């Protein structure tokens, strides 16, 4: 089927290319507005949690009682006792439409000293917006408050949950542009080095660019049917670009091999799509099905990431399978044109080195002479690298994900250090009473309950702030870091309090939603792991008909992930290299990001596994030599896998340029996982462990073996192409190109 698809695309190459140009033009126009359709929220909360249920009640007639925006005013010359200070702030506050504000408090309207800094040169306007959801309040803030409260001679900064989301959104778009401006030129240079030909180098980049532009259009379409998280645009666009270039690299490399073996252009296109197209399809299938595991988590952030990435990966695979055959047919034998006189490394150009003289072949043979020592030693090293994650402290994004000079972080630091209390640091209790909440008996019971809540360690004041029907709202202050263990203990203490007789209580706001989010992630993580393991085993069994190779690949990927998660903990919790990356470590990490890294890494690992094992399997079928086939397969795949991994690292490394801390986490985690998987695992651990398995590596129980022979998806061609300069090994074995 893939061969036929490639043949059809090649025959209709003009229609394919013209259609692609039209699509890119339309997608660029349509996709340019994608970010504006995603709303302002991140969607980290568990919608089925107690805190979410409380939020739903507060969205009704009872209403919220929380500060969404803190506008901080600081004067270098005057204090709040100066009438001019009061007049300036009052004039600024009058610019806010009354229809946008549910509550607005200033030092002069409340008389509270809590709203004045210790040096009396700073004060803030505390604003509760009328919306009930994070998304609608971000839009309202952007339209009616943001940048409208400036006062000449004052330093004005915006803090609070809503400005945090707005500031993260602004940085997200800027980070994407910067990452692409840095990565695309580097990608072109690396592709030229890999292929030594401008024509060959250009094709994967063209496909990658089409996918990157098309990804925005795809995201916008997805956003019409599902509320996509604002943070998905960077992850999906860069991931789509990286995967498309990786796939293009594999296909172009195979096409050059087929031409070098003496086949015609049409034959080369057909055989390339049958072999490399199979690898691309399996990889895309593996990543898409693996990403589907994120729907196990009910949070909008993870579900929207899954939906968006699956959509873009499928789009990327289709682009590679349809557009690239047309481009290859146009290129034909000119695929090697415009060769550059780059310096050669080693005795000869790697393209001309016979398999047995290749460095990876010799390395694999050396490793297979000591398989036990290599397997044990490298496994211990990777497990030790993962040890720091055992002491991980998990949090969720807030102002700490922003750079140190961002408004929200400055405001938060000022509230912590210069003011008596932070007005945003509250917990809300929603109490359903057995009778009217404003009745005499109900009020007395609620006051007694509030007094008990106020005695819970960490709570700083508890009072009744609203009633509606049989519902009452209690507002509790606190002073500790909401991400801390003390805050979690406070939440546990609050929930341990017995509500008034016949009443039911729900708690919400930041510390509570964090506890609920971590509980949701922890409870469902084992199901995600089981799902990913099942998908990995099933996909690799379909590809190779073995039960031991999939198990081995699963264990090797776990080692890659251990190194990645350990590095994340060292960098983002303990602060190693924080100065280099340019962020301030907070002593905890975003708990959502490891889930994303887990599924992406498993999908990518299966990509590299399918490609490497396909080459090993080709040699095994031709020779039945378990040692020689591994060394030949590693040599044939190592260079292209290393190149693909390097190109992918360049793309996802763009996350490390982000000013948003959890985007850096994604970059660091994926870079470490991919580098370890493509070098230590594929190049060293795989030959060692395959040597331990020997011929048993391709074993399956008889019933499964019969099933696979009928329903499996084996390689379309039983032998690799004979490349130019290849050597014929003993027994008629072919030494294909080192590429």
TrEMBL record:
The keyword Metal-binding is annotated on this UniProt entry: no
UniProt-annotated location(s): Cell membrane
Membrane topology: Multi-pass membrane protein
InterPro entries: MMPL_dom, Mycobact_MmpL, SSD
Domain of life: Bacteria
Residues passing through the membrane, by range: 176-195, 202-225, 231-252, 273-297, 303-328, 372-394, 525-544, 551-572, 592-611, 640-657, 663-685
PROSITE patterns given in the database record: SSD
UniProt keyword terms in alphabetical order: Cell membrane, Membrane, Transmembrane, Transmembrane helix
Residue span(s) of domain SSD: 215-330
Keyword Lyase: no
Family, similarity comment: Belongs to the resistance-nodulation-cell division (RND) (TC 2.A.6) family. MmpL subfamily.
Name used for this protein in its record: MMPL family transporter
Organism lineage: Bacteria, Bacillati, Actinomycetota, Actinomycetes, Pseudonocardiales
């Amino acid at each position: 089927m893939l061969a036929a698809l490639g043949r059809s695309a090649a025959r209709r190459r003009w229609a394919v290319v013209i259609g692609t140009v039209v699509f890119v033009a339309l997608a660029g126009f349509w996709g340019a507005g994608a970010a504006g359709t995603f709303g302002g929220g991140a969607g980290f909360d568990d919608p089925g949690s107690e805190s979410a249920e409380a939020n739903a009640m507060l969205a009704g007639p009872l209403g919220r009682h929380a500060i969404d925006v803190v506008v901080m005013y600081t004067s270098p010359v005057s204090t709040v006792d100066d009438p001019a200070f009061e007049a300036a702030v009052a004039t600024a506050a009058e610019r806010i439409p009354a229809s946008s504000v549910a509550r607005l408090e200033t030092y002069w309207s409340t008389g509270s000293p809590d709203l004045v800094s210790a040096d009396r040169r700073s004060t803030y306007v505390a604003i509760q917006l009328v919306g009930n959801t994070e998304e609608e309040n971000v839009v309202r803030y952007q339209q009616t408050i943001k940048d409208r409260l400036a006062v000449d001679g004052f330093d004005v900064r915006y803090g609070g949950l809503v400005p945090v989301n707005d500031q993260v959104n602004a940085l997200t778009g800027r980070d994407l542009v910067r990452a692409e401006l840095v990565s695309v030129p580097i990608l072109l240079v690396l592709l030229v080095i890999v292929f030594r030909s401008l024509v060959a180098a250009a094709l994967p980049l063209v496909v990658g660019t089409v996918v990157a532009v098309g990804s925005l259009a795809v995201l916008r379409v997805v956003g019409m049917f599902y509320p996509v998280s604002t943070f998905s645009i960077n992850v999906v666009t860069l991931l789509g670009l990286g995967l498309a270039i990786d796939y293009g690299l594999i296909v172009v490399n195979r096409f050059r091999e087929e031409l070098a073996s003496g086949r015609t252009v049409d034959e080369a296109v057909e055989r390339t799509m049958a072999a490399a197209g199979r690898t691309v399809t399996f990889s895309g299938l593996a990543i898409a099905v693996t990403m589907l595991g994120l729907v196990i988590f009910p949070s909008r952030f993870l579900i929207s990431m899954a939906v968006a990435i699956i959509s873009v990966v499928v789009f990327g695979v289709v682009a590679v399978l349809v557009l690239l055959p047309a481009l290859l047919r146009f290129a034909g034998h000119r695929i090697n044109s415009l060769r550059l006189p780059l310096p050669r490394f080693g005795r000869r150009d790697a393209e001309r080195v016979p398999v047995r003289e290749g460095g990876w072949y010799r390395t694999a043979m050396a490793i297979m002479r000591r398989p036990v020592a290599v397997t044990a030693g490298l496994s211990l090293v990777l497990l030790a690298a993962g040890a720091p994650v055992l002491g991980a402290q998990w949090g969720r994004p807030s102002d700490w994900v922003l750079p140190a000079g961002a408004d929200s972080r400055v405001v938060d630091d000022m509230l912590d250090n210069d003011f008596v209390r932070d007005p945003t640091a509250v917990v809300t209790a929603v109490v359903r009473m057995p009778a009217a909440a404003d009745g005499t008996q109900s009020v007395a019971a609620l006051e007694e309950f509030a007094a008990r809540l106020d005695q819970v360690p960490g709570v700083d004041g508890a009072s009744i702030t609203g009633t509606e029907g049989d519902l009452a709202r209690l507002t509790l202050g606190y002073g500790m870091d909401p991400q801390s263990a003390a805050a979690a203990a406070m939440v546990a203490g609050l929930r341990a309090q017995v509500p008034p007789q016949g009443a039911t209580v729900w708690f919400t706001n930041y510390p509570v939603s964090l506890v609920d989010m971590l509980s949701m992630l922890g409870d469902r993580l084992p199901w995600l792991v089981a799902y990913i393991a099942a998908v990995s085993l099933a996909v690799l069994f379909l590809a190779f008909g073995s039960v031991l190779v999939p198990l081995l690949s699963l264990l090797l990927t776990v080692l890659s992930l251990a190194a990645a998660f350990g590095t994340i903990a060292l960098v983002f919790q303990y602060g190693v290299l924080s100065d280099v990356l340019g962020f301030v470590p907070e002593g905890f990490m975003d708990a959502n990001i490891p889930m994303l890294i887990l599924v992406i890494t498993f999908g990518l690992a299966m990509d590299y596994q399918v490609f490497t094992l396909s080459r090993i399997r080709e040699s095994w079928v031709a020779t039945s030599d378990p040692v020689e086939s591994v060394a030949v397969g590693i040599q044939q795949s190592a260079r292209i896998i290393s190149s693909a991994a390097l190109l992918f690292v360049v793309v996802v490394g763009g996350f490390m340029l982000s000013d948003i801390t959890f985007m850096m986490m994604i970059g660091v985690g994926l870079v470490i996982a991919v580098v370890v998987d493509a070098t230590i695992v594929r190049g060293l651990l795989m030959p060692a462990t395959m040597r331990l398995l020997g011929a048993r590596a391709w074993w399956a129980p008889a019933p499964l073996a019969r099933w696979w022979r009928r329903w499996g998806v084996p390689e379309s061609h039983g032998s690799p192409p004979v490349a130019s300069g290849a050597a014929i090994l003993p027994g008629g074995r072919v030494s294909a190109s080192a590429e």
